[in-house]
């Protein structure tokens, strides 16, 4: 069972302030998404063989924004409820959850670079599978501290399960190799061609 580890846990001030707690995961997730380049990410996604039930790429941005917000709300709710408790066990569960929360946030932010930037579907799928397990345990731990906090994490946990299926499905259908979905493209042709093998060239003006 994971214990409270202050050295790898977000500062208490973040959990205690609703704005900081909610906006931090939203801001970090947005920053990682834009650092990978949204257009390139969507193009890569569309170029890959996909498992059934895959949503259009435009769904992911709004969905993750909502889930990051719920994640931050759950953190604030669990922390403020748990740390004000007179029960030492509840306080310990709250702190333990804070460490789990920090770990899952790191795993969450690592998935997109692993999948889209480094094109490592095996490592990305292992990452999101571990993330789902950690989040499931976090939901259980913080659910004992505050029922509302536990339920606030349920949509996130459900989406992670679906995202794990998508990550594994894409990896399997593409032979666990995303690099061959790109082809070399001279800089001079960048305006009228594409580097994605399954993407039609842009129309010439």
Order of helix and strand elements from N to C terminus: HHHHHHHH
- How many strands, which pairing sense, and closed or not: the largest β-sheet? none
Mean pLDDT: 88
Unreliably modeled segments:
188-202
- Overall, the morphology is elongated
Radius of gyration: 19 Å
- Which quaternary structure do these chains form? single chain
Structural class: mainly alpha
Which features characterize this protein?
single chain; 205 residues; 8 helices
Structural notes for this entry:
This protein has helices at residues 12-16, 18-36, 38-47, 60-83, 88-117, 121-145, 147-152, 154-173. Residues 188-202 have low confidence and may be disordered. It is 68% helix and 0% strand. The protein has 8 helices and no strands.
Offer a concise description of the structure.
The protein has helices at 12-16, 18-36, 38-47, 60-83, 88-117, 121-145, 147-152, 154-173. By secondary structure, it is an all-alpha fold.
Strand-helix topology:
Blueprint (H helix, E strand, L loop, with lengths): L11 H5 L1 H19 L1 H10 L12 H24 L4 H30 L3 H25 L1 H6 L1 H20 L32
Helix pairs in contact: 2-4, 2-5, 4-5, 5-6, 6-8
